[in-house]
Specification:
Elements: E1 2-6, H1 12-19, E2 23-28, E3 38-40, H2 44-47, E4 53-56, H3 77-92, E5 99-103, H4 108-114, E6 120-122, E7 135-140, H5 152-156, H6 160-163, H7 175-180, H8 184-194
Parallel strand pairs: 1-2, 1-4, 2-3, 4-5
Antiparallel strand pairs: 5-7, 6-7
Helix pairs in contact: 1-8
Length: 199
Amino acid sequence: MKILVACEYSGTVRDAFIMAGHDAISCDVLPTDSPGPHYQGNVMDMLQYKWDMIIAHPPCTYLTNSGVCWLSKDASRWPKLFDGADFFKLFLDVDCEKVCVENPIPHKYAVRLIGGKYTQLVQPWMFGHPESKATCFWLKGLPRLHPTKNVKEEFDSLPKNKQQRLHYLPPGPDRAKLRSKTFTGIAEAMAQQWGNLLA
């Protein structure tokens, strides 16, 4: 039950799988925020090994729909978009039977370059967090996640700045980290539902 969590420095998904009894390691160019098995370096070093499951969180800066308007304003972003799509596809094409690649909603150019739309879209409020953050999964050999604790009613009762807490975070050195971190409820659902497939 060897699981690689690629492009993760928070340790959230890695630790959820470890808590579920699996042998999981995270990998990123940054050091881990949480003590645990972590390889700091090039993910290509890790992809040469055999894994039972790979969950990848490739950078979304040039792929996400929220940033598509910048493509018409800054021509230098186009080569970075192509590089980002190639890196994303690296995980879709990896030699592993069970793969999840996670990203926000992509723009139309990214979808064309990646080669297909996402398999599933989830929200934190489906997994116990009364917040909004559309998260897409491209799945290979894995079923869609089932919601574990739907708190949509609580979510709907909150003001917009609470519903979209991550969107309203003030500028700062940790803003990008906070916005990219996987919600624990989603990580635990991955470990429980997909981890059972490896048992």
